[in-house]
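Please, structure for the following, as tokens.
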Amino acid sequence: MTLIGIAILIIIGGLLLGMYIQYAFLAAALFLVATLGYKTSFLLTYGYGVVNSLVLLCVPLFIAVGSLMNQSGIGKSLVEFVDIFVGRVKCGLAVVAVVASAAFGSIAGSSLATLSCIGSIMKPRFEEAGYDKSFSAALVTCAAPLGLLIPPSAHMVLYSWSGRQSLLACFLATVGPGLLLVLLLSITSYFILRKNSNIKNREKMSYSEFIKMTRDRTASAAPALAMPFIVLGGIYSGYFTPTEAAAVAVIYTIPVGFFVYKKLTVRSLYKTLKETASSTGVIMVMIFCIMMLSRIYIMEDLPGMITDALKNLSDNKYVILLGTNIILLIIGMIMDDTSAILLCSPIFIPILQNFGVDPIHFAAIIGVNIGIGLLSPPTAPCLYFGAGVMKVRVADMLPTTMKFLIFAWIPTLLAVTYFPQLALWLPNYVIGRM
């Protein structure tokens, strides 16, 4: 256990020193190889076998879809579509930002892509409507990780692959928490803004004008909104495997970007594919290094050690889940989302199964935890990226960000942890009918 603890400290120390995450994991793996006597040939062969997986083709394909949708100008049509329904109510523009982030996140599957697209579109709208800059920046930033929860999500692909679970079940498990989070973010926004007299609502229009606007905006947004239904419907109906569904999403997105929204160009397509290849290379190296280290941890029975420690702490499943959430929150605060999922999934799934926790339920728990980690210093990639997109200081965003974490994200985490049906009802219903 001492050597395992030193390996964990090597990872934490490397991250604090600014080392690339894959090198921090590789350094820990090399330390354990040197001290425990594992053969490098065995680990390299294992790492290669893990990466050489057809399911992992989903990752670059979904990354490409997110980038292509961002380049296609789809965000504006989604924002205008949502504005039809809530643009007239008090603080309606805040609700537009939240729902549009959920809708775009379901298409792009990326928090940073959602933040970049929706943030840049909503910034001038917020300013024109009299919203405080720090509030609007915090809101868009805290809504961006909805892309982790509203399917399809590349993160759930990694979770299902590393934890050997059904991808469709993992996709569906995060829908309930995602919808709850949309509701809580909207309610929290209302209570923060309800006494703000500077906010302007959309001007009232005639019935005929409303009908025309609804028709035009719905037609504009329909091609974008159809994509998640094509992906999930294809998987649900059995027409596509998850990998095939991701490929269909790419094939669908390119002509939509070129000929429907007309924002995608040959140059932006080339740039997107180049960035996708670069991101995929980084992720695959990361997977290679993390899986080798994870294999050593499992062979050294780290899950068994943690299970025994938790049993000494309590036999109550809910106390165990609370402790697991605390560990995941800490990991999410110091690691990026991809690394945290890849490291935690194979280790924690067998632990929690010993306490009667369904791995599909855990998919929703880890998804919400990683979302909180994206917003929590010291790493907080969404927080710092959001400050750059919205042109505000992180210090100005923090008070409102904390309100959204306390009144929206944390209650969602507690709800999905202690009410497992919030995560399980939809997978059980859909898969039970297949």
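The chain is about 80% helix and 0% strand. The CA atoms of residues 37 and 406 lie 46 Å apart.
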